[in-house]
Amino acid sequence: MSTFDAAPTALIVHAHPEPHSFSTAQMATAAQALRDAGYRVDVLDLYSDAWAPTLGREEFGPVEGHFKPQAEQQRAVKDGTLDAVVKAHLDRLLAADLLVLSFPLWWFSLPAILKGWVDRVFVMGAVFGGEYGLFGDAALAGKRAMLLFTTGGSGESFQPGGALGAMDDFLFHIHRGMLEFVGYQVLSPVVTHAPARMTDQERAAALDTVQESIALAAAEARTAVH
Ligand SMILES: Cc1cc2nc3c(=O)[nH]c(=O)nc-3n(C[C@H](O)[C@H](O)[C@H](O)COP(=O)(O)O)c2cc1C
Predict the structure, then answer these.
(1) Around 81, how many Cα atoms within 13 Å sit in the side-chain half-sphere?
(2) What lines the ligand 1 site, CB under 6 Å?
(3) Residue 198 C-alpha to ligand 1 middle, in angstroms?
(4) How many Å from the N-terminal Cα to the C-terminal Cα in the chain?
(5) Which GO terms describe its cellular component (predicted)?
(6) Per-residue pLDDT tens over the stretch 60-71
(7) What residues does each domain of the chain span?
């Protein structure tokens, strides 16, 4: 049974250190487009919340001997001893029908603060593993996820054969290795290329395009296979 039947919830996890960046404006535009499409929108702004991205031993209280992060995650889920901040983020993740990861592309990937959010919040035993399997058997199966990001490189440079290579190739580790791995059905990414080289007029037009793309994605998420 899809959770999209009632008013759906979108969780946007945003990672940009500058509140006046194009990425942050893009995130705000996407949030409004989702609200306009009938979503309840929850925004996690990792930099402004000073999110600590490192998964380490200290998160689990006293760990004797050899530290195995995923074993500790599973034990903490079972014992109800997950770190309070991680638990709060996990609850917001589990409550969301649609997850949007919002970021500037850094080294063909997520900024470290966002990668660390995945490390700590995609908890083994709670979103996959333990009583859950992987992919279609993972805890987030039936939900949707998508990437919303900006690049330094131009659109042409990311075409197959372009200087930076085909985007689908290097997004694989996020789409397959993180999102589908925990059960999500992945929607097409919304990307703005090279906002730093845009005029104010071009930036306004690019935000209009983001608004339209997110409206389409919101509709696709509601009608995607249940
Ligand atoms: C650490 C770092 C790594 C970056 N790596 C890439 C990259 O791999 N590919 C790319 O196209 N742009 C890269 N960029 C450029 C950013 O993606 C670009 O400046 C940003 O998306 C523009 O959006 P903003 O103005 O909202 O920051 C990188 C920037 C930084 C700071």
Answers:
(1) 13
(2) 16, 21-23, 104-108, 150-153, 195-196
(3) 14
(4) 7
(5) cytosol
(6) 988 889 999 999
(7) 3-223
